[in-house]
Every structure is written in structure tokens, then in C-alpha cells.
Recover the amino acids of this structure.
RNA sequence: CCGGACGUGGCGCAGCCUGGUAGCGCGCGAGUUUUGGGUACUUGAGGCCGCAGGUUCAAAUCCUGCCGUCCGGACCA
């Protein structure tokens, strides 16, 4: 994309409405604009980030056999009356009427809808297990929206729902999902630590939330460093083998990890001091097994092996996609701006033309830009070098390819790595190889 | 929902106390200048001062109500 023709409105100063760093940077880097309290428009670069996150989430869901669907944002109140949650859910649920005075709601979550869809189509235990997910906008009418997209009212979320014949099978599904989550966050370039979560009235131990360490997090977190050292992408576990899943699960859940409300100081003291990590965390994912709660309340059954009806065991698994955009920035920025992890950056690199109008510079920039117009943002504006550098740092492109008359004559560019600040002069070929390497 | 603040060109703010019809910086347009980290100067455009009512000869300024937004807290399957 050519910067001179793009809708990428950066701001030099901090808008008064934004207090926390991710909110400020998202506004300043031209990723989002607020349209109402807790509701945001995503501008081109922000949308790219959202898509990049979604795509990684999607690939990891598909990898464990989940199938993507797309359910609507608006739901009929009748569905929620069947499960009994229409009255139970508080004013957080945005209730709407259509022209016929029929009651609708903007979905805060989709358990009812997916259970109904499942029940309509799946009639036999032979069709189990099933795992479905979608990536869709949701709305919760928070009393007090804050922190930009991290706690907005409208937000993009991936939620998956699983249906298993029995508890053991549901446990295996849960563990597969746990692995998928660990892989997803690692690929996104952040470390999200799984922590045992309160299962509330349903009980059981199958509930984990994933938190990214960031000073603005809503909960205090304590965990063993072992959890951030593991390379989950290299995890050899065979997800079809329950025994292997068991070993994997133990390894994930054995090291200490807890939020402040579940914190156990005795267990914490047992963690070697140099491995203790403590701070604040932002919840970016939550996986939860809730058994037959919805299949029972909505009376959805399949025929079991004996021919009698069975209530499938369910779980739900969420990832806050739009919240992640903010959380990643919270975890990865400096005074100059955002430092995007490679996998989620809107552009791989910005090409900074220091002297627009200079034949050599223009030609070299065009040559580089044309190798991949999707991956590159070409700063072809006539601004001064300083302004371009400042914007480049602010927007946080992983690489900056600086083309100036000094080195362009020799066919070389200056390549800067945003994360480390390291710069070196290299040939165009070497720059392209480095930047586009995967 | 409780408590606290704020709404003045695109952004950041001053003016309000002590009413007299709006100002600064940044940004934007034109020009000169500069040419590797937000250059300097000249010039120009841009505002029913959140909305409604009231007081007054006169309201951005005083009074009342409403709306919006932010901060802290409570809340956040």
C-alpha cells in the first residue's frame, strides 16, 4: 500500500480520551477510531491486524478438527427463553425489538444457538464428536467500557463449541483445545499463560483462562517461568492418543499458575524464587467444559449406542480477537510506538523513501515495493525524514527499509529491525530475503 | 450503578472566576527554505464554544435541565 494514497491517519499527539498505552497507540497509529463508548471502527491497518489474528486462530482451530461456521449477531429471544437465560442474563444483554415487536437480542455469546443448530442436525452418537467455531462480533452492554478495545462493548471473538458423547471424550477434546490455544498464542508472538479458572456452580477442574502479562491487566497473576519457556509448536503430542494427551495435560497444569483470586501462597512459596513470575494479566482466552448444561436445558439429545437418548457433553472455548489486538500492544511497545510481532503486523515492512523525487531513490523504492505490494507499506510522502521515521516507529512495522540517496547509489538500503532497533546496510536482495523470510 | 472530572476548528489546550460576540500550539492549503529522526519563516482556510431553556441591553463565560465522553470503584459466563 502506498502511504500517500492510504487511509492511515496517524496522530502526533495523544487524544485526551485515551489513557492506557494500547488505546493511545491504536488511535495514534491510525488503527481504530471510536464511534461511541466502547464501540470502534477498524481502519485499514487495524483491520489487517484483526484479520491476521483471526487467520492464525482459524488455522489452529482447523488443525484440531474444528469446523468454521458463521452465526448471526442478532438472535431471537425465544432461543434464550428455552435455556432460561433470557431472564437470567442481566442488562448486559442488548435487547432489541423488530418492527413486529418481536424480541431480538444482539448476541453476547452463542451457546443456545449452536446447541439448537447441533440438535437440529445431529441425531446419532455416531456423528460425535463435533466441534464448531465462528469468529463473529458480539455485544455486551458493559456498564463502564474502558481501556479501548480491551474492554469495549462490541468485540470480535472466536468461540468454539464442542459436543462429545461422554465425559472422557469431552476431556480429550478439552485437552486438544488447550494445546491449540497454546500454539495459537505462541504463533501470535505473545505468551499467554493458562491458569486454572473458577468453574462456578458447575464445578470440576476443566476451566482455564489464558492471560497475557501486561501492567494494565485486570487480574494479578503468579506463575512458574516453566510455562513460558516451553515451545508448544514443537510439541510432539499425538492428539488422537488419550494417554499422550494425559501426559501433555499434566505437563501444562503441573507448574504453578494462578490469578490473584485463586492464589495459593503456600504452593507459590514452593516455586524456586528465580522461576517466579508475577504481575498483572489480561485475559485473552478461556476454555470451559460445562457438561450437559445446555443440552439438558434445551433438551437436545442424540441416540446413544443402546438406542436411548443421550445428552451430549459440551464445552466452549473463546478467544478475544479484538481484545488481543490491544493486549498484544500492551505487551509489546516502547516510547516511540507499537512493536508488532511479525505474525500480526499489518505490514511486514515500511519502505521509507527519504528523498521522494530523487530518481535513484524512487526507482529503488518502486522496485522493492513491486515485489510485494501487500506486505509492504511504501512511504512515498514528501514529508521530512524525521516525520517518516517517527510514523514508522509509531506504526510498529517489524522492519523498516530505509532508502536514501547516500546508499541508494550503491544499490544498498538501511534495514532496521523495529524490535531491537538494530540497523545495518545491506543490498536490496538481502533486505528482501530477510524481510520476507518466514 | 456509586464517586470524580471534562465537553471551545481535525488533535492538544487557553479564555469562563470578574458577561461585551473567540485565541494559542500542532495538523491542513499556498509559497520560500530545509533535506537522514516530527526544519524555519511568510501567508491562508477552518469554530451555530455539546444541546435545550432561563437571567441580561448583551452569554463560551452566570443559572437549570438534558446529552455525550473520560477516570476510579463495583461489575466483567
Amino acid at each position: 500500500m502506498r502511504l500517500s494514497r492510504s487511509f492511515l491517519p496517524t496522530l502526533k499527539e495523544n487524544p485526551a480520551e485515551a489513557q492506557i498505552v494500547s488505546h493511545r497507540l491504536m488511535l495514534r497509529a491510525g488503527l481504530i477510531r471510536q464511534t461511541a463508548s466502547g464501540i470502534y471502527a477498524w481502519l485499514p491497518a487495524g483491520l489487517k491486524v484483526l484479520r491476521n489474528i483471526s487467520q492464525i486462530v482459524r488455522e489452529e482451530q482447523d488443525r484440531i478438527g474444528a469446523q468454521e461456521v458463521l452465526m448471526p449477531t442478532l438472535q431471537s429471544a425465544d432461543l434464550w427463553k428455552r435455556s432460561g437465560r433470557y431472564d437470567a442474563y442481566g442488562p448486559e444483554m442488548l435487547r432489541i425489538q423488530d418492527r413486529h415487536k418481536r424480541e431480538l437480542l444482539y448476541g453476547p455469546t452463542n451457546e443456545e444457538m449452536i446447541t439448537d443448530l447441533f440438535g437440529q442436525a445431529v441425531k446419532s452418537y455416531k456423528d460425535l464428536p463435533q466441534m464448531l467455531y465462528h469468529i463473529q462480533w458480539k455485544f455486551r452492554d458493559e456498564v463502564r467500557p474502558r481501556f479501548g478495545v480491551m474492554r469495549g462493548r462490541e468485540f470480535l471473538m472466536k468461540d468454539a463449541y464442542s459436543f462429545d458423547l461422554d465425559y472422557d471424550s469431552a476431556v480429550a477434546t478439552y485437552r486438544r483445545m488447550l494445546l491449540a490455544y497454546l500454539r495459537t498464542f505462541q504463533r501470535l508472538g505473545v505468551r499467554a499463560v493458562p491458569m486454572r479458572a473458577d468453574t462456578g456452580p458447575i464445578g470440576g477442574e476443566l476451566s482455564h483462562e489464558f492471560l497475557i502479562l501486561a501492567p494494565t491487566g485486570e487480574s494479578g497473576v503468579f506463575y512458574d517461568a516453566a510455562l513460558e519457556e516451553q515451545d508448544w509448536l514443537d510439541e510432539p503430542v499425538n492428539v488422537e492418543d488419550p494417554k499422550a494427551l494425559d501426559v501433555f495435560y499434566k505437563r501444562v497444569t503441573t507448574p504453578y499458575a494462578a490469578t490473584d483470586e485463586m492464589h495459593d501462597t503456600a504452593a507459590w512459596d514452593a516455586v524456586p524464587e528465580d522461576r517466579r513470575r508475577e504481575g498483572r494479566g489480561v485475559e485473552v482466552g478461556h476454555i470451559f467444559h460445562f457438561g450437559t448444561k445446555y443440552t439438558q436445558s434445551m433438551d437436545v439429545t442424540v441416540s446413544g449406542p443402546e438406542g436411548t437418548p443421550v445428552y451430549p457433553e459440551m464445552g466452549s472455548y473463546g478467544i478475544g480477537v479484538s481484545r488481543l489486538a490491544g493486549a498484544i500492544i500492551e505487551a509489546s511497545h516502547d516510547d516511540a510506538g507499537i512493536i508488532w510481532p511479525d505474525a500480526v503486523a499489518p505490514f511486514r515492512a515500511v519502505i521509507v523513501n527519504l528523498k521522494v523525487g530523487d530518481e535513484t531513490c524512487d526507482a529503488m523504492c518502486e522496485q522493492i515495493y513491486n515485489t510485494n505490494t501487500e506486505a509492504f507499506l511504501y512511504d512515498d510522502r514528501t514529508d521530512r525524514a524525521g516525520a517518516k521515521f517517527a510514523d514508522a516507529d509509531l506504526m510498529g512495522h517489524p522492519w523498516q527499509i530505509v532508502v536514501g540517496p547516500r546508499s541508494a547509489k550503491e544499490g544498498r538500503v538501511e534495514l532496521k529491525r523495529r524490535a531491537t532497533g538494530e540497523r545495518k546496510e545491506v543490498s536490496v536482495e538481502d533486505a528482501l530475503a530477510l524481510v520476507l523470510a518466514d
